[in-house]
Amino acid sequence: MTDPDTKTMTDDPRTPSSSSDGGDAGAAVPRAPMPTRSATSGAVSTATDREVLTAAPGISVTGLDAFYGSGHAIKDVSIEYVPNKVTAMIGPSGSGKSTVLRCLNRMHEEIPGARATGTVMLDTDDIYGSSVDVVAVRRAIGMVFQKPNPFPTMSIFDNVAAGLKLNGIKGVDLKERVEQSLRGASLWEEVKDRLNEPGIGLSGGQQQRLCIARTIAVEPQVILMDEPCSALDPIATLKIEELISDLKQRFTIVIVTHNMQQAARVADTTAFFLAGELIEHAPTSDVFTNPSDSRTEEYVTGKFG
Amino acid sequence: MATTSSPDVRRGGRSILERSPAARRADPLFRGILTGLAGLILVLIAFFFVFLINKAEPALSHQGVFSFLFTNDWNPSKAIYGAWPLVAGTLITAFIALLIGVPVAVAAALFITELAPRRVRGPLVILVELLAAVPSVVYGLWGFFVLIPKLKPAEQWFTDTFSFLPLVGGNVAGPNYFIAGLILAIMILPIVSAISREVISTVPADLKEASLALGATRWEMIRMAVLPYSRSGITGAAMLGLGRAIGETIAVTLVIGNSPVLGKQIFDQGYTLAAVIASEFGEAANDKVHAGALIAAGLVLFILTLLINAMARALVRRAENKGTKVKAVPGGLG
Amino acid sequence: MTALAQLTPRRRTTDRVMRVVLAIGTAIALIPLIAVIYYLLSKGLGAWSIDLFTKDPTGNFLGDQGGIKSALLGTIEMVALASAIAIPFGWGVALYLVEYGRKGRFASTVRYFVDVMTGVPSIVFGLFVYATLVLSGWGGSSFSGWKGSVALALLMLPVVTRSAEVVLLLVPDALREAALALGTPRWRVTLRVVLPTALPGLITGSLLAVARAAGETAPLLFTAAAVNGTTFNLGERMNSLPVQIYNDVQSPSDALVQRAWGSALALVTLILLTTLVARLASRRSRLS
Known about the structure:
The complex is a heterotrimer of chains A (305), B (334) and C (288). With 305 residues, chain A is α/β, with parallel strands linked by helices. Chain A is built from ten helices and ten strands. Chain A has helices spanning 97-104, 134-140, 156-166, 174-184, 188-191, 204-217, 234-247, 260-266, 284-289, 294-300; strands at 59-68, 71-81, 86-90, 114-122, 125-126, 141-144, 222-226, 252-256, 269-274, 277-283. In chain A, a hairpin with a 2-residue loop joins strand 9 and strand 10 (277-283). In chain A, helix 3 (156-166) runs parallel beside helix 6 (204-217), helix 4 packs across helix 6 (204-217) and helix 6 (204-217) runs parallel beside helix 7. The radius of gyration of chain A is 19 Å and the shape is globular. Chain B has 334 residues and is an all-alpha fold. Chain B is 70% helix and 1% strand. Chain B is built from eleven helices and two strands; from the N terminus they run ααββααααααααα. In chain B, a hairpin with a 4-residue loop joins strand 1 and strand 2. Mean pLDDT of chain B is 85; it is low at 1-14 and 323-334. Chain C contains eleven helices and no strands. By secondary structure, chain C is mainly alpha-helical. In chain C, helix 3 packs across helix 10 and helix 8 (186-214) packs antiparallel against helix 11 (254-283). Helix content of chain C is 72%, strand content 0%. Chains in contact: A-B, A-C, B-C. At the B-C interface, helix 1, helix 3, helix 4, helix 5 and helix 6 of B face helix 1, helix 3, helix 4, helix 5 and helix 6 of C.
């Protein structure tokens, strides 16, 4: 399933660095075996990992090109997003990291004149396949945006349930699902007594967690995050970073961030983009302490961007 | 490849779901309906245009297009349809309307935007907008029973005093061009003022501050920074007012006298293209040529307003997009 | 430095004078409003009576002239039908322009013509309908209430479309994105996220168009014409308030003129109330 020619994470396990980032960010992990199609999704654990609660599939990108009209924004990118891990995408403005993200749930093509070509495999399906329904792709791959965007006309409860109600999904106990999702987003305790209040009445950090709850309420398999903390204050940011470490037990997570310290804190592996190309993708600690490409090194040491 | 399953997304190795064919048709259908509605507008306009020409044809072939527009003889009983008195009347009343209405509207716009204290601004805006809430027929009623009698003495005085001016002199008729123009001026005040206000408020603050910082008085700032910048936008606003004035029917027909003879001075009775349609409509019901002539008058109105409005909107749009043309250093003061 | 250095008395005077001039200009703009309202009240209130609103006009010049009941009801009926046509149509076109047609030649053309349509005189819309529906005798009798409604709807259409487009553009794209990212199909995003968010503003714009249509005379003169009796059959000639006023104004009878004032007051009140409700509706908007 992998393309050995591109710069993807290798099977070479490296010893964890001695950096004091809490948790597993630096642990090198051999790619987890793809869970079988059986209904039982047993926890797949590896050495120092947190226990995986629900095995999520990874995403495998091959030869992705993206265009805005005639502008060639993403050039032949191939990358593996490891199941139940957090992959960070970093790079200067305009490097294409957000564009790549939006190609993963086919939001890129919502921009007039934009299109993408290539193969993006979720589990065993190419989301760009000809018979694939874009709407279904987005139910399996959710997205959290930079600026929190709860629906202004809806209450907290309705916001979380929006993904289910808007799509007429039946057979789900809404109350239960909303509570689960709010718990999963570390927001339940703060809002459990005011579920009927408008969603926009919450603080910025709470709104973003509300958006996360909304995203996980439809039970996706992958969560994409586009600079989710850049509009938030440091305390709210920290809460969300803790949340991300919890979420990876159930989802595969891809996060775009312009904040390298954040990548160092939350990501298992980090991918560096420059001018529409993937330069390097390796365990986070390696990218920051021992990058193999000189351009990566220049970026992480702050020489540009 | 993809397998179908229940709509609720399950976890663990599940592949991408496909939606039912019916659900997948909803999006294109929705888009198609909306696109159809949008296209329908274009179809309707073209359709009506064609129909109008078709119905006007009996009159136009009878009279000839050029003759229709420029012959000074409107005599339906003799089947003569020279609409020049109507065209001239339309232009005269519109001209008077602009002459009186635009300065007042712009003055109000300037006052509200630049000079009025903040708290008064809102109420003033609402009051000017209220002028637009009065329907045409009510203006006609008021114009006929209030304005005409009350202004007659003043009009007579003006005529006697200034009879040396062209287009002034003779007997003052009750309903006349001037009153029609005056009523039209009132009716175009809201739109000219509103658009002027919008244009004036887009003048960049730093432009205004620059002249104030150089020591200009408020009026000088308006004259140097605001007016030049807003010139094309205000012109556009005036043209929108012109378009409105040309097409106004009911108020005009009640106060202009509906005389098919072209008046010789502004206090004579007159006629306009719009007024003739409203007032002669009844007697034209069974006369195809007469009805055709009225429809031709409407066609002229339609085309005129299309052109004027297109020009006006281009001007207003240009005003909103342009850069500064103002000299930062004031000249000619003192 | 420059000539600005000295604030001469002359410049100060000019400033003062011009300020006064502008203030006077504004006052001049408001005088007609006050005058119209004054006369409407002073001459119109006297005509208000129960009879005015509960009796149909009799068509007599002398003796009992009746009231304006059929006119009031006719206006309400015709404007209601016109709204039922124009509002969905206008919202639909606006939705197209905002959700699918932000760029592109077709959309720009439509947008341009809607814009241009706002400047078409109302009498021309009446002529449109007259030429196509009345002259051809479509639908039985030549003049009928529904044809008047069509003319009014044509008049309302560009107004509704334009105001709707403005409001829909105010809905932040972030909301559309959020809904799309949840796996919502486009049409649902539009109907269940965009439309509800924009609804207060949409209603305001529509009600303002309704207020405008209620006051129009010209389009009705040769589409719905006029009739004295109250009718609920839109397939026949129908009376309307503006047309009633128009006819009464031109009559030689003082009593009818007085009735015209009373009707005018009623019409203006109706329009102002509708405008007021429209403005109140926008207060509930959660958009900027």
